[in-house]
Amino acid sequence: MAAEAKTKTAVVAGGTKKAGAFNRFDNPWLNWKFLAGVSILGIIFFLIFLGNTFWDTSLALNASAPLNLPPYGMEYQKGKNTILVGVPEHPLGTENSGRDMLALLIVGTPRTLGVGAIAASVGMLVGIFLGFLAGFLGGWIDDMIRLATDITITIPSLLVLIVIQSVLGSVDLVTMALLISMFAWATPTRYIRAQVLSMRESGYVQMARLSGVPVRDIMFKEIMPNLLPYLAASYIGNMTGAIISAVGLEVLGFGPQRIPSLGVAIFFSIEAAALLRHMWWWWGIPTVILAIVFIALLLINLGLDEIANPRLRKAN
């Protein structure tokens, strides 16, 4: 009988599976997508820390290194009779203005991530506040917030940001992040409103209302803790969109060009025709770093979605 009990299958929502493969005591945070994404970002930040500790980041400034050196171990034919060879002093090569690519990545990567984090944080704070107001209070407040959200979502944000930054001229990274956050609140507001609408009729919320708990406490002490995995997933998605907007502006030449970042590096490579000159490391390495960052954020987002929604989880 004991052997039969171990091999017995149980019927669940998604079909049948072996008993004990998944139960209510399993930790949903042990999600391989979430852990893989966090690990990739952790490795990136660890490498940045090592770079700032052991590498001369002043090489990210103009005229601080030889021009147009390829990565170490490779050659670059600059002209008919000129061949440049990579040196260990500049393992990832240098670019047209004499900046070391490794130093540029060490300095530029956290700044690119910082712009996304600032814009996403501001957008999420506004989205949480407006989404809870609209979803819980309803009525004319919900109508006004929903109208403002729908209008903002339909606006071509990148085009508007280009116009604003062309008028303002050169801006710093924080200002650019705040400009991006002007359009980063609408999507979280809509999603959070939908979640609050579905949760405000739940039993524990009704009990809190009958007990005389203030509305503010019901929203942010009763409902909000149950939405934390969902809010985290929304934040990661918001951060991804903010980084794309920031890099897009920088590649088009509307970012702070004197401050090294991944988007600025790609902009200068385009301006100097690095693709036609076969200087692939100038634009290729920052592009690969951005791709790795986006893959990590995507994995975290997918993992958080599965953590927040039990129906998306799959037993191993």
How does this structure look, described?
This protein is elongated. A two-stranded antiparallel sheet has the order 1-2. Strands 3-4 form a two-stranded antiparallel ribbon. α4 packs antiparallel against α7 (186-199) and α10 (228-251) packs parallel to α11 (262-271). Mean pLDDT is 86; it is low at 1-22. It has helices spanning 2-7, 32-54, 101-137, 139-154, 157-168, 173-181, 186-199, 203-210, 215-223, 228-251, 262-271, 280-308; strands at 9-12, 15-18, 75-77, 83-85. The chain has 316 residues and is mainly alpha-helical.
How many E-type strands?
Answer: 4
Helix content: 55-70%
What share of the residues does DSSP label as strand, in percent? under 5%
Query: Largest sheet at a glance?
Result: 2 strands, antiparallel
- Outline type: elongated
Low-confidence stretches: 1-22
Please state the average pLDDT score: 86
Computed CA radius of gyration, to the nearest angstrom: 25 Å
Number of helices: 12
